[in-house]
Design a protein that fits this description.
Strand order of the largest sheet: 2-1-3-4-5
CATH superfamily: Probable inorganic polyphosphate/atp-NAD kinase, domain 1
CATH topology: Rossmann fold
CATH class: Alpha Beta
Shape: globular
Largest sheet: 5 strands, parallel
Number of strands: 5
Number of domains: 1
Strand content: 15-25%
Length: 123
């Protein structure tokens, strides 16, 4: 995986866990000089404007998806044919595709920044 300079964040609406997680995540990225592109829902959690979900992937090296399987599938549609890895975080509901828990977000992101993550390609 190339050096991660820009991360997109796509969030599930009305997810209480995101209210606490998003500000911490944005601060964590900022401390590492990583640019964040956030969708409108993530902007609600962050208290700042976001952009259209379909525009988030532009120029991103990684997309963090906060939600469940439905949010992950929506993010995959926004990415389209671009080769951008997804980093799926399960915000507490049942998720088969979103394997990373809220407690694992920062350690797993550290691993991703060190290119230690396995990337599974899907079509």
């Amino acid at each position: 995986m190339p050096i991660i300079k820009t991360i997109g964040i796509i969030s599930k609406p009305k997810a209480p866990a995101a209210t606490e997680l998003v500000p911490k995540l944005l601060e964590w990225l900022s401390r590492r000089a990583i640019t964040a592109r956030i969708d409108e829902q993530t902007g609600v959690y962050a208290g700042q404007p976001g952009i259209c979900r379909d525009d988030v992937p532009e120029g991103c090296d990684l997309i963090v998806v906060l939600g469940g399987d439905g949010t992950l599938l929506s993010a995959a549609r926004a990415i389209g044919s671009r080769e951008i890895p997804l980093f799926p975080v399960n915000l507490g509901g049942l998720g088969f595709l979103t394997a990373i828990t809220v407690d694992e977000v920062f350690p797993e992101l550290e691993r991703a920044l060190r290119s230690e993550h396995r990337i599974a390609r899907r079509k």
